[in-house]
């Protein structure tokens, strides 16, 4: 039984009656080709496991260096927070704020909120603050830029490797893993979480 | 094949936050979603006005973002200010054409694509056009998808400045251009998010 008996296209407002989807199925809008629904297999348990994995990778990415340079015994390191700090200069700090928000604060808040919601769903309770949390998750979705940070780190390696001995630390692998886990979680639109345990949520 | 109909014709409205198709009759006076309690808007209010305002802000910020230096380097090879275009040119000359291309796409091609695409969407919606509705909706989705990749240069400058701290041998510091560039990314994303693609399909008398 589909979670939403009626689907409405977000991009052109066309109304459809939902049909059951098989594994791998994607329901597309007949008029504008927007994705209406995907086959959604994630259970509360697997969602919770993914969120825990994301939290661990996020911690590693921020506790170990992503990049480091060693010249004659002098070593410099960089991770997300160091990158943010380096932009803190007079009014340029607005860029530091933007970077902190998109690569640190928003991913951290999203992981924490999803953990909260799924934890309560797991023990069969409606999560306190569920409505506001779902709205916040929906609003912050476009602003998480972990994958862009990964690409930026790779570009920085190639850029600096001509001049200085630069090495990638454990953090870059953690960022790569975090990108994948967040992508899997991101495919599950917050809307899909409503369908996991309708009895609990409503 | 049954006729395709829009939500309000069938007495329904979509909650964009949680995806619920709510019956219009079930809504209370302030149109709160019965499931997630967020406000339901049949169409984003002042969509085209907001989109245009953010778009103009983006184009304005894009000028200093390109004219002002984004980074200042000093070291054994002297001092230098570099701009975004200058940086791309440097990579190209030193043989790193792939990195040059990547930064060109993220910092020049993507913002320009967004300016032109959003402008086109606004113009066609304003004219109540039936032209290529399908392709225009696809264009909107492309703009939405490519939006945040422009942050690339901000991240590269930040990482380079964090790493290059070797007093005599070489240091790098961010400059004002990067703040403007960050602003371009944010306001063009706000512009794209303000645009309601359903306007492409609406028929107004």
Short description:
By secondary structure, chain A is α+β, with helices and mostly antiparallel strands. Chain A has 8 helices and 7 strands.
Task: Tell me what you see in this structure.
The complex is a heterodimer of chains A (202) and B (205). Chain A is of the alpha+beta class and 202 residues long. Chain A has 2 domains: 1-39, no CATH class; 43-201, no CATH class. Chain A is built from 8 helices and 7 strands, in the order ββββαββααααβααα. Chain A has helices at 44-63, 80-86, 93-122, 130-140, 146-161, 170-187, 190-196, 198-201; strands at residues 6-8, 15-17, 26-28, 35-38, 67-71, 74-78, 166-168. In chain A, strands 6-5-7 form a 3-stranded antiparallel β-sheet. Chain A has a two-stranded antiparallel sheet with strand order 1-2. A two-stranded antiparallel ribbon of chain A has the order 3-4. In chain A, α1 (44-63) runs antiparallel to α3 and α5 (146-161) packs antiparallel against α6. Chain A is elongated, with a radius of gyration of 20 Å. The model of chain A has no long low-confidence stretch (mean pLDDT 87). By secondary structure, chain B is an alpha+beta fold. Chain B folds into 2 domains: 1-42, no CATH class; 46-200, Butyryl-CoA Dehydrogenase, subunit A, domain 3, CATH 1.20.140. Helices cover 52% and strands 11% of the residues of chain B. Chain B is built from 6 helices and 6 strands. Chain B has a 4-stranded antiparallel β-sheet. A two-stranded antiparallel sheet of chain B has the order 1-2. In chain B, a hairpin with a 2-residue loop joins β3 (71-75) and β4. The chains are: A alpha+beta (202), B alpha+beta (205). Chains A and B meet through β1, β5, β6, α2 and α3 of A and β1, α3, α4, α5 and β5 of B.
């Amino acid at each position: 039984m589909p979670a939403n008996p009626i689907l409405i296209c977000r991009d052109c407002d066309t109304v459809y009656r939902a049909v059951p989807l098989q594994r791998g199925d994607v329901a597309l809008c007949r008029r504008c080709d927007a994705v209406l629904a995907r086959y959604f297999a994630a259970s509360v348990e697997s969602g919770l496991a993914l969120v825990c994995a994301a939290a661990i990778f996020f911690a590693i990415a921020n506790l170990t260096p992503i990049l480091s340079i060693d010249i004659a015994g002098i070593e410099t390191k960089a991770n997300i927070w160091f990158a943010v700090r380096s932009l803190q200069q007079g009014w340029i700090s607005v860029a530091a704020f933007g970077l902190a928000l998109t690569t640190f604060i928003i991913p951290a808040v999203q992981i924490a909120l999803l953990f909260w919601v799924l934890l309560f769903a797991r023990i069969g309770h409606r999560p306190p603050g569920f409505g506001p949390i779902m709205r916040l998750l929906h609003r912050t979705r476009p602003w998480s830029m972990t994958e862009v940070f990964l690409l930026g780190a790779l570009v920085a390696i190639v850029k600096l490797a001509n001049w200085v001995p630069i090495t990638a630390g454990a953090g870059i692998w953690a960022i790569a893993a975090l990108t994948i886990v967040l992508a899997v979680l991101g495919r599950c639109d917050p809307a899909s979480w409503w369908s996991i345990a309708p009895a609990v949520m409503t | 094949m049954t006729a395709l109909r829009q939500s309000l014709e069938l007495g329904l409205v979509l909650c964009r936050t949680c995806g619920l198709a709510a019956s219009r009759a079930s809504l209370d006076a302030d149109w709160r979603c019965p499931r997630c309690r967020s406000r339901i808007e049949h169409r984003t209010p002042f969509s085209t006005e907001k989109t245009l305002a953010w778009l103009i802000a983006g184009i304005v910020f894009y000028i200093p973002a390109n004219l002002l230096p984004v980074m200042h380097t000093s070291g054994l090879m002297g001092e230098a200010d570099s701009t975004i275009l200058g940086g791309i040119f440097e990579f190209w000359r030193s043989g790193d054409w792939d990195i040059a291309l990547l930064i060109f796409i993220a910092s020049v091609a993507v913002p320009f694509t967004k300016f032109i695409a959003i402008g086109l969407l606004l113009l066609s919606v304003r004219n109540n056009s039936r032209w290529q509705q399908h392709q225009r909706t696809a264009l909107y989705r492309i703009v939405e998808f490519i939006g945040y990749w422009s942050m690339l240069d901000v991240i590269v400058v930040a990482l380079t400045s964090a790493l290059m701290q070797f007093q005599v041998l070489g240091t790098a510091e961010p400059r004002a251009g990067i703040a403007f560039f960050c602003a371009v990314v944010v306001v063009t994303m706000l512009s794209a998010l303000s645009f309601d693609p359903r306007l492409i399909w609406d028929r107004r008398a």
